[in-house]
Amino acid sequence: MSKANVIRVTSEQVIARVNARLASYLAEQRARAAALTPRAAELVDALTELTMRGGKRLRSVAIYAGYRAVKDATAEDPDPTTDVAAAVELLQTYLLIQDDWMDDDEERRGGPSVHAALSRQCGDPKLGASLAILAGDLAVGSAFELLHGAAFPTHRAAEARAAFTAMHFEVVCGQQLDLLDHPDVTLTHHLKTGSYTVRGPLKLGALIGDASPEQLDALEHIGRPLGIAFQLRDDLLGTFGDALATGKAVGNDLREGKHTSLVAEARATLGGDARDRLERVLGQRDASDAQLQEVTDALETSGARARVEAQLTAQLREAEDALDAAPFAAAGSDLLRELLGRIGLRDR
């Protein structure tokens, strides 16, 4: 089998195993909730709908890549990473539920956000938002339950729990900085996205494989720029992406007033009328499509888009250089290299 086939098949197998584990676990959770009261099952249904609707499962692939980087295993060997991967996917569900409510986003992954769906279901936006928060609580509680049952070596279990908790702590702090429009966009990216999208998953996978300190350090040097690259791509897709591919309305970042890397670059360079138009549209939820297009064009012509794309390329190159120097098994290195491509070239 060629190297390319090994990479492709292994990634697909990881995603299929994680999806199957999520489906079975969430079915168990629904039965547990329904045994208490049929109404309780509605919250599990809501988080299940979002979790299973789609998602790139990049975090699951990152966990397995971290494991294979430090553990000499074949594609046919049992996969000990599935429960922790399912845990991280449910952590993401919880974060997406909260993020959509905070941003007042009605869509996620090509369907209604959880608070929007529950609001329509009960006919009350405030009650729907409150129920969505509870659905998120169930999701994060389930994530920690799965983590505690994951197949970490006994002597690394406490370290793994600490890594998961630290990942959760960092993403909450990063979300706070995002809401407050913190001027250090790179720090916000590092905490909010890099923590649970790349750095945390890589470390958790490596701990399952009983990684050495040198291997963990090498993964940190790969994960830090790769996590920032993920958010830079997100920022570009939020303004210049295809709504059918992303599952969210393009231009929402501007309407919501998000302090993205594109906005930071534009504010640093735009002047006069162009700067005034940006500030007038930013955060205006009723901004017209024509106003959005005008600002989008300014982001292009001012060079803001090109500079963010250059930052993305630089972060990916830094991650690749760190990978080239890392003491990893060949299969893990191949998966990590594939992950770089998926993050750098993704369209959703």
Walkthrough of the structure:
The protein is an all-alpha fold and 348 residues long. It has a single domain (3-345), classed as Farnesyl Diphosphate Synthase. Helices cover 77% and strands 1% of the residues. A two-stranded antiparallel sheet has the order 1-2. It is globular, with a radius of gyration of 20 Å. The two termini are 30 Å apart. 46% of the residues are buried. Mean pLDDT is 90; it is low at 1-9.
Task: List the defining traits of the structure above.
348 residues, two-stranded antiparallel ribbon, mainly alpha, disordered N terminus, 2 strands, Farnesyl Diphosphate Synthase, 16 helices, 77% helix
Nearest-integer average pLDDT: 90
What CATH first level would be assigned? Mainly Alpha
Give me the secondary-structure category: mainly alpha
Largest sheet: 2 strands, antiparallel
Number of contiguous helices: 16
SS strand fraction: under 5%
- Going across the biggest sheet, name each strand in turn: 1-2
How many whole angstroms does the radius of gyration measure?
20 Å
CATH superfamily: Farnesyl Diphosphate Synthase
Multimeric status of the protein: single chain
Poorly predicted regions are 1-9
Remind me, CATH topology? Farnesyl Diphosphate Synthase
Distance between the termini: 30 Å
Order of helices and strands: HHHHEEHHHHHHHHHHHH
User: What form results from the Cα inertia axes?
Assistant: globular
CATH architecture: Orthogonal Bundle
Domain unit count: 1
- Share of residues in helices: over 70%
Tally of strands: 2
